[in-house]
Amino acid sequence: MEAIQIQTSSKQYEVFVGEGVRSEINTFLSNHFTNLTRILIITDETVGKLHLDKLVPLLSEWNPVIFTAPSGEKAKTFEVFYDALSVALESRLDRKSVILAFGGGAVGDLSGFVAASFMRGIPFIQIPTTILAHDSAVGGKVAINHPLGKNMIGAFHQPEAVFYDLELLNTLSKQEIRSGFAEVIKHALIYNPNFYQWLKSDIHDLGSLSSEQLFESLTRGIKIKNEFVSKDEKETGIRAYLNFGHTLGHAIESEMGYGNFTHGEAVMIGMIFALKLSNEVLGLSFETEEFVNWVQELGYQTKIPVHLSAERLLAKMKQDKKSAGGSVKFVLLEQVGKPKLQELSDDFLLGQINNF
Ligand SMILES: NC(=O)c1ccc[n+]([C@@H]2O[C@H](COP(=O)([O-])OP(=O)(O)OC[C@H]3O[C@@H](n4cnc5c(N)ncnc54)[C@H](O)[C@@H]3O)[C@@H](O)[C@H]2O)c1
Ligand SMILES: O=C(O)C(=O)C[C@@H](O)[C@H](O)[C@H](O)COP(=O)(O)O
Ligand SMILES: [Zn+2]
Fold it and tell me: How far apart are CA 98 and CA 108, in angstroms?
């Protein structure tokens, strides 16, 4: 087990990573919440069926209330957000209550936003169950989607702790492993060339990751995330670098219809696009073809789905949270490990999308 310290300006907390760490949650609750009144576990249908029986018995003394959201992006809607708040009110949660987010990034984002808005904010704990959630469970970005854009309605609300029990990842599908691993590759590309080289030389089959490879990838990713959120919790500067691949990635997710394309797989296409732009605009010397061959070997799609329109993708990118005054800002790389925020014109971007 490793405990990684996350230090933001509003809160310091730990991410406990390892097989079986869920067994520590009860003690953590007893030690950190005197007068704890109620626990609400928010999960989704898939995780609920697969894993709730491994969590609830550990918390029996609290008799937790359970809210089950639909699986995947369907959890991040206004309707589900409203339903979760209704359950919190009906179950008489109060400011001495705690919400447990038990699932992947969608459940984490939903639960965190419920916690941020219920009675203007109550504590929550992340119990992530996907590879992707090494990213989403850390750093306090919580949100739901709007048809006009991804994660458009949300808050910054840090968890009290993260219990990342790697035993629970064994049931992930190949596609969800791939989706999550894209954020690991992102963390390497924006921060650490050695980590990137290690991934590229060591990882050739995401279906047969060893527990050492998985542990190393997730803990290094979490530490890199901490490097950015510890210096810029509310994204006024360098935190935006964590958005590498997301400007186009989010536009693809939104244009495909939320949930029809996984987050990580869309971000991978966005990263390839941003790497090509980096070569062209910033003179990065990066073997994009070699990278594309590697990620294809890992099973990623590397092209924008053909039926999506460049104009509509551009319109979505203009609404990205990094945009100001309607101009699109992209995270590009000057070198691997050296990101830069770059404004790009609409015409240039349209041309690049059409030639991608
Ligand atoms: N807040 C952040 O900083 C941040 C960072 C990255 C991504 N995100 C968000 O996270 C979401 C994507 O995360 P995700 O891929 O973890 O999402 P997810 O919660 O949708 O999980 C993906 C799928 O895997 C299933 N699943 C979860 N755990 C499982 C397990 N252990 N075994 C089998 N199936 C399991 C889920 O039911 C779902 O169908 C997106 O909405 C994205 O925008 C947020
Ligand atoms: O934590 C961050 O900051 C990130 O950008 C991490 C991203 O992987 C994540 O997908 C995030 O939710 C995107 O944020 P958004 O502000 O572009 O919605
Ligand atoms: Zn992401």
Answer: 14
